[in-house]
C-alpha cells in the first residue's frame, strides 16, 4: 500500500465529510490540500479545511474505540465533548483505524489566561455524568496504571544518570496503583489543557482515545502534580480546584485538604511526564523537564 493511496483515501474522506457537502479543500492551493501531522502518541492527524481525520495508533482496539465514539454522543456526555462527524471508526487503507472530527480551536498549554475555572466545571460535569448504562459498561478501565507501566518500561532503556532512581520510583508507584481501589466514574483518561477546545457552544473535551471508567482523581493528576512540582502556578491550580469543587466534582472532598485523594495519581503523572520529557529532550534541557526531574528526586 503506497502513501499516495492513503493520501487519496484521506482526501476523499475529508471532502465527503465537509459541512454542507462543499469540498473541505475549497480555496486551498493544491500543495495545501491536505496537511498531515504526526503526534507524539503515535497517532496522525490529517487536516483539510474544517475537517480533521485522526489516524489512531496502530495498536488501537477497534471495539474500544467504537464504544468510546458512541459514548460521547449519548445525551449525558454529548454536551461536554466535541462531537465526531461519524459515530463509528473507519479502516484506513494502511490498516489503521480512523475517526472524523470538526476542526476546532485547541487550547495551547503554556499560553496565558487559560480558562481554568471553566475547565474545572467541565471536568466535574464529566465525572458526574451518568450516560446510558450499556455504553458505560462497554467502556474500558481508565489507563492510568497502564501509563505508569509503559513509562517504567521506557525508563529502563533510558540513557540518563537519573535512570536508576527513576526505575526505583516507577516500580514503587506501580505497586501502589495496582492496589488502589477508587470509586469508579466516567473519566477522560488523559486530561490536560491540550485536550480542550474552544467552540461556539463553549469549552469542550477532545480526544476519546483514553475515555473509560476509573478513579476521577486521575483526571486531576497532571495539574495537581505539575503544581506540586512548581510547574503550574498557585493561582491556576487554586482556581481550577475551587471550580471543580464548586461544580460537585467527586474526585476530592468539597472542603478540606484534597491531597490524600490526589497524592498517588499526581506522583504518577509527574513520573510519566518526566520520562516523556527525558525521552524527547536532551538531558541538559530546561523547564519543565528539569523541574519534573527534581520533583521525582524528591519522591
Topology:
Elements: H1 3-17, E1 35-38, E2 44-48, E3 51-55, H2 62-71, E4 90-91, E5 97-102, E6 105-106, H3 116-128, H4 133-138, H5 144-156, H6 163-177, E7 185-187, E8 196-199, E9 202-205, E10 212-214, H7 221-228, H8 234-246, H9 259-280, H10 289-298
Antiparallel strand pairs: 1-2, 2-3, 3-5, 4-5, 6-8, 7-10, 8-9
Give an overview of the whole structure.
This protein has about 300 residues and is of the alpha+beta class. It has 10 helices and 10 strands. The strands form 3 sheets. Strands 1-2-3-5-4 form a 5-stranded antiparallel sheet, covered by helices on one side. Strands 6-8-9 form a 3-stranded antiparallel sheet, covered by helices on one side. It has a two-stranded antiparallel ribbon with strand order 7-10. The protein is globular. The chain starts with a helix and ends with a helix.
How would you concisely characterize the structure shown here?
The chain is of the alpha+beta class. It is built from 10 helices and 10 strands.
CATH architecture of the largest domain: Alpha-Beta Complex
Structural class: alpha+beta
Helix count, DSSP H or I runs of 4 or more residues? 10
Helix content: 40-55%
Written as H for each helix and E for each strand, in order along the chain, the element string is HEEEHEEEHHHHEEEEHHHH
Mean pLDDT figure: 87
Q: How much of the polypeptide forms β-strand, as a percent range?
A: 5-15%
Are there runs of 5+ residues with pLDDT below 50, and where? 283-287
Count of all domains: 2
**CATH H-level superfamily of the largest domain:** Aminoglycoside phosphotransferase (APH), C-terminal lobe
Main sheet record: 5 strands, antiparallel
Radius of gyration: 20 Å
**Silhouette:** globular
CATH fold-level assignment of the largest domain: Aminoglycoside 3'-phosphotransferase, Chain: A, domain 2
- The CATH class of the largest domain, by name, is Alpha Beta
Quantity of strands, as a count? 10
Amino acid at each position: 500500500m503506497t502513501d499516495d493511496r492513503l493520501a487519496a483515501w484521506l482526501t476523499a474522506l475529508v471532502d465527503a465529510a465537509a459541512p454542507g457537502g462543499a469540498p473541505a479543500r475549497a480555496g486551498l492551493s493544491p500543495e495545501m490540500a491536505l496537511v498531515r501531522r504526526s503526534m507524539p502518541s503515535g497517532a496522525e492527524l490529517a487536516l483539510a479545511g474544517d475537517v480533521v481525520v485522526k489516524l489512531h495508533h496502530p495498536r488501537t482496539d477497534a471495539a474500544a474505540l467504537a464504544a468510546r465514539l458512541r459514548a460521547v454522543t449519548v445525551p449525558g456526555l454529548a454536551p461536554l465533548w466535541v462531537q465526531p462527524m461519524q459515530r463509528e471508526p473507519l479502516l484506513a487503507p494502511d490498516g489503521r483505524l480512523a475517526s472524523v472530527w470538526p476542526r476546532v480551536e485547541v487550547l495551547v498549554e503554556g499560553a496565558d489566561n487559560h480558562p481554568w475555572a471553566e475547565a474545572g466545571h467541565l471536568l466535574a460535569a464529566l465525572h458526574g455524568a451518568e450516560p446510558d448504562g450499556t455504553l458505560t459498561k462497554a467502556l474500558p478501565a481508565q489507563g492510568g496504571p497502564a501509563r505508569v507501566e509503559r513509562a517504567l518500561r521506557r525508563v529502563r532503556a533510558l540513557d540518563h544518570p537519573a535512570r536508576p532512581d527513576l526505575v526505583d520510583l516507577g516500580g514503587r508507584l506501580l505497586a501502589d496503583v495496582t492496589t488502589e481501589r477508587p470509586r469508579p466514574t466516567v473519566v477522560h483518561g488523559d486530561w490536560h489543557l491540550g485536550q480542550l477546545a474552544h467552540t461556539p457552544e463553549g469549552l469542550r473535551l477532545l480526544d476519546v482515545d483514553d475515555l473509560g471508567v476509573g478513579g476521577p482523581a486521575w483526571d486531576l493528576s497532571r495539574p495537581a502534580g505539575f503544581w506540586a512540582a512548581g510547574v503550574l502556578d498557585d493561582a491556576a491550580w487554586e482556581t481550577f480546584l475551587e471550580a471543580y469543587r464548586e461544580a460537585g466534582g467527586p474526585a476530592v472532598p468539597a472542603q478540606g485538604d484534597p491531597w490524600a485523594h490526589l497524592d498517588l495519581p499526581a506522583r504518577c503523572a509527574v513520573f510519566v511526564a518526566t520520562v516523556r520529557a527525558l525521552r524527547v529532550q536532551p538531558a541538559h534541557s530546561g523547564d519543565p523537564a528539569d523541574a519534573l526531574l527534581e520533583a521525582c528526586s524528591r519522591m
